[in-house]
Amino acid sequence: MSQIIECVPNFSEGRDLNVIKQITDAIETVEGVKLLNVDPGKATNRTVVTIAGEPKTVIEAAFRGIKKASELIDMSRHKGEHPRMGATDVCPLVPISGISMEETAEYARVLGKRVGEELGIPVYLYEAAQTNPARKNLSVIRAGEYEGFFKKIAQPEWKPDFGPSEFNQKSGGTVIGARDFLVAYNVNLNTTSVRKANSIAFDVREAGRVKRIGDPVTGEIVKDEKGKPVNIPGTLKSVKAIGWFIEEYGVAQISMNLTNITITSVHEAFEEVCRKADARGIRVTGSELVGLIPLNSLLDAGRYFLKKQQRSVGVSDAELIKIAVKSMGLDELSPFKAEERVIEYILNKQTSKKLVDYTLSDFADETASESPAPGGGSISAYVGSLGVSLATMVANLSSHKRGWDDRWEEFSDWAEKGQQLKKELLRLVDEDTISFNKIMDAFALPKGNDEEKAARTRAIQAATKYAIEVPFRVMELSLQSFELIRAMVDNGNPNSITDAGVGALCARTAVMGAFMNVKINASSYSDKTFVQDILAKGNAIEQKAISLEAEIIELVNRSITQ
C-alpha cells in the first residue's frame, strides 16, 4: 500500500463485550482494513479501537463503526470515569506511511461530513482538521461533556462543523480530526486519593495549574493586570494529564496523553511522574499503555534504563522491550504482550513463517530439502549475521568485565552497532529467498503476444537486478562487521578473542558466498554497464574481506599461542 493511515475511534462502551464485538465486526466488514487492537476499560466504560489501512478503506470502516455505535450505545444511560460527549467520543486519523498530515486532515473532513449528514450526529473537527484555532483542542471542545452539550451546542460559537445544531440525545456528539501519533499512558500510584493524583497530574502536564495564594486548591486565584488567572505551567511539554481513581484496580492513576513523543517520550513521562509523586510522599507502582505504541518508543525506553544502570544497550529488541516493560511496570495490571501492542509488529505480522523464525534444526532441514530456496544467498546472509553476533557478544562481555567499569559505554556503542548490522543481515536471509521467488514469478508470466513478451522480459530483468542487489548488500554489511570484529580482537575481553576470530571467518565466508550469488545473477542481466560496475565493487569488497580476515586470524593465533 502506498498510503497508510491509522484510525483510533474511542467508543463509549467498555463493559458489554457483545456491543463492542458488534462494533468491531462492522468495522471488519471493510476489506483491506486491519483491526490492530481492541482495548476495553471497565472503569472508564470506554473502548479504544485501532485500525489501519489505505485512507479510503479506513474512513469507510470508521464510518461503519460510528454508525453501529450510534445504534447500540445510549449516551443518556452512560457513566464512566473518562470525559466523553458521544457514543463515538473521538475519532482521530493518524498518518503512518506515504501520506501528509494535510491529506490525512482532508480525509477527516470527508468522514466528518458523512457522519454529520447521514447519521444526524453533530460533528466537531479538531487538531489538524480544524481551521479555527479556538476549536482545535479536544479538551476545549469536550468541556461540559455529554450533559453540558445540550446548552453548549445552542451557542453560535459552538455550532457543529457538520451535522445538526441540536444535540443527539442517544448518540451525543463526535469529535473527528487528524493528529500525530498519540500514546495514551497511565501511571499507577499507591494511593486511592484522586486529589493527590490530580496534584501530580497538574505538576507534570503542560497546561499546569492556576496560581493561587496560600492553599493550591482553595487559595485565592492570582490574576494578571488584565484580570486573567495566572498559570503555573507543568514540567512536561506535549502532555495532557488528569488524576482519577480506577475502581477495577483499586488505585489512583495519572492518566496522560503524550501528544508528541518526540518531545516527551514515554519513559521521560514515567520518570517525571515518579519524581513528582515521590515529592508528595506517593510511590509509583507501575503503569499501563492504552492502545498501541511505536516500536522505537519501547526500544528508546529500554536503552534509557540500561544506560542508567551503566549496562550495554547493544542487546536485542526483545531484551530492550523486556527492560522497558519491567522498568516502567507495564505488566503490573495485566500481561504486556509486545506482539499485540507494538504497531510495527502487528502491521508486519506474516501469514507465512519467515526463515529467521525457524528453529536451527528446522532451518537446516529446510535448506537440505529438495526446494531450491533457501540457498547460498540466504545462508551467506545468515553466516554474516552469526559473525557479527559473535563480535557483539564480545562487546557485551567486555562492557561487563570486572575492572573495566569505566569502559562500559565504549563497548556498549560497539555492541549497538553490531546489533544493527545483525538485524539487517537477518532481514536479508528472507529477502534473498524473496528475490529468488520474484525471478520464478517473472518467468511464469504469459509470453503469448508481443506486449506480454515485453512485459515478461521487463519483469525478469527487474527481478534479476533485485537478486543482484540483495547479496551485494550482504557483502557490504559483512565487510562493515570487520571493523567491530577487529576492535574486539584488539581491545575486547581477551578471554573471548577466539569468538571474535570465528566471527572474522564467518564474515569472510558471507562476503565470498554472497559474491557468488551476485556473479551468477549478473550473468543474465542485460545492463552490462551496471554489471561491470557491480562486479568491480564486489571484487574490491571480496579482496578487502580476505585481507582483513587473514590479519585478524593471525592476531588471534598469535595471542592464543603466547
Explain the overall architecture.
Helices cover 52% and strands 14% of the residues. With 562 residues, it is α+β, with helices and mostly antiparallel strands. It folds into three domains: 4-178, 2-Layer Sandwich (Formiminotransferase-cyclodeaminase, Chain B, domain 1), CATH 3.30.990; 183-347, Alpha-Beta Plaits (2-Layer Sandwich), CATH 3.30.70.670; 355-561, Formiminotetrahydrofolate cyclodeaminase monomer, up-and-down helical bundle (Four Helix Bundle (Hemerythrin (Met), subunit A)). The strands form four sheets. Strands 1, 2, 3, 4, 5, 6 and 7 form a seven-stranded mixed β-sheet that branches. Strands 13-14-8-15 form a four-stranded antiparallel β-sheet. A two-stranded antiparallel ribbon has the order 9-12. A hairpin with a 6-residue loop joins β10 and β11. The protein is globular.
Second rung of CATH, namely the architecture of the largest domain: Up-down Bundle
Beta strand %? 5-15%
**Average pLDDT rating:** 93
What is the CA-CA span between the terminal residues? Answer: 59 Å
Helices and strands in order:
Blueprint: E1 4-7, E2 10-11, H1 17-28, E3 34-41, E4 46-53, H2 55-72, E5 88-97, H3 101-119, E6 123-127, H4 138-142, H5 145-152, E7 174-178, E8 183-189, H6 194-204, E9 209-210, E10 212-213, E11 220-221, E12 231-232, E13 239-246, E14 251-258, H7 266-279, E15 284-290, H8 295-308, H9 317-328, H10 338-341, H11 343-347, H12 360-368, H13 376-399, H14 408-443, H15 450-491, H16 497-522, H17 528-561
Parallel strand pairs: 5-7, 6-7
Antiparallel strand pairs: 1-4, 1-5, 2-4, 2-5, 3-4, 8-14, 8-15, 9-12, 10-11, 13-14
